[in-house]
Design goal:
With 346 residues, the chain is mainly alpha-helical. 71% of the residues lie in helices and 5% in strands. The protein has a four-stranded mixed sheet with strand order 1-2-3-4. The structure holds zinc ion (ZN).
Amino acid sequence: MGQPLFSVFGIPVHVSIWHLLTLLFFFQTSFQNGVEFGLAMLFAASASVFLHEMGHALTSRHFGLQPTVVLTGFGGFTSHQPARRPRDEFLVVAAGPTMNFVLAGCLFGLHAAFAGEEGDTGFAQVLMSQIIFLNIFWGVYNLLPIMPLDGGQLLRVTLRRFVKKSLNADRWTHRVGLVLGAVMAVFFAVQFHSVFGAVLLGLAAFENYRALQNVNNMDADYRADRPHERVGELLRQARTAFEARDFEAAMRFCHQARAEPELSPAEIRHTWHILAISAASVGDLDDAIRFAERVPNSPEMAQVQASCLLSLGDSARIRTFLRSPAALQLTPERLDELRAVSRSDA
Ligand SMILES: [Zn+2]
């Protein structure tokens, strides 16, 4: 992705050339009101999208999830480390549209104040009302419960909270996304004559269709594995929770599964694997190292140990780790990094 264009509050922001080009395409009619007006609309649209992403980014930074913002095409996205709790994830996702509504509210207040004083419909007034509309539209559009839009993600987190099997929650999320995506695609085409909007929503519907197939396949895999046994169900729930980044639940199911007598060596290995990554994700670094040590000859587990040891900054333990067989699984860069820290207080 290369270097970020700029950083805000320590959050790197990348801007793709497609961002500018797509906005130009969308707001070309604004230039009919003059170049100044067109440029102002372009800037305002970009700023609205940017502030939406900053809503996600600042909230995820608050939870220590190291966000990065990318502005691309008409919109943007914020990537960050997985949230530790469903509640955190909900707040991070909800903060994007909230930012647009707050912005629209503030501008509406200003708009009303100035209209009261001057009472004319000049450049600033028209611009202001269009920016308000834009922000309301962007907030509402993103809240459509269609994955991968914010609304779809909120629906998934909420359903996972209330539906017992998280696989079923995902299934319902994608069913809603598939149907609503298709309906909204037609609506955008007919009502707004927007080919772009229709294609975007149509693609989202298709993505949900594919995700739905994946969920169904995954469910079938687990059933074939261990038809009616308790251990099979526990492992399935552990993996589902793990994939849903519900690490606390994943660890709980893993511990329950480990208590079952008939675990195969492959299943035991899989359980330690989930436990190690989950513990590292929730910040139980010592546990994570302990779990990862149980899986020999795994580059991924060696990597977990290395990053936990680096976070702990314990140079004595790093020196011991460097002499262990697990260190042979690491990349040269990671080894250099560990060696540098191990020498720091030697
Ligand atoms: Zn968003």
